[in-house]
Design goal:
CATH topology: Oxidized Rhodanese, domain 1
Distance between the termini: 21 Å
Number of domains: 1
CATH superfamily: Rhodanese-like domain
Order of helices and strands: EHEHEHEHEHEH
Strand order of the largest sheet: 1-2-6-5-3-4
Strand content: 15-25%
Length: 129
Amino acid sequence: MFRIVALAFLTAVAAASLGMAPTIAQSAQVPLMQPATLHALMASGARMKIVDVRQSEEFNQGHIQGAVLMPLGDLSSTYTALPKTGKLVVYCRSGHRSGQAVQFLLAHGYTNAVSLDGGYTAWTAAGYR
């Protein structure tokens, strides 16, 4: 259901925006969820929290139903509002920012966090709205 991939794109700028030192490992294991898996879980009524880490302008142009907006730049001050139990699905446009967000969350004890593989772009390309 989930696959682990190495993401080697955590930049010093992004790390700084999350309040992390730029010396954080440049690649880390980030659990991914496929759009079809998320869609199936949503259809089954599974309890989960879906977090959109894009900017409000992007969110307003379209988002996954039930998602809450928590921009990546604000995550270091808002993440404690997220549940540490149940599935936590994080997405952005393509998966880059959500990968960074999941790395941050995992480093802060959120073992339940996964990134939507391909982000909102993959979600809509699969025909989901």
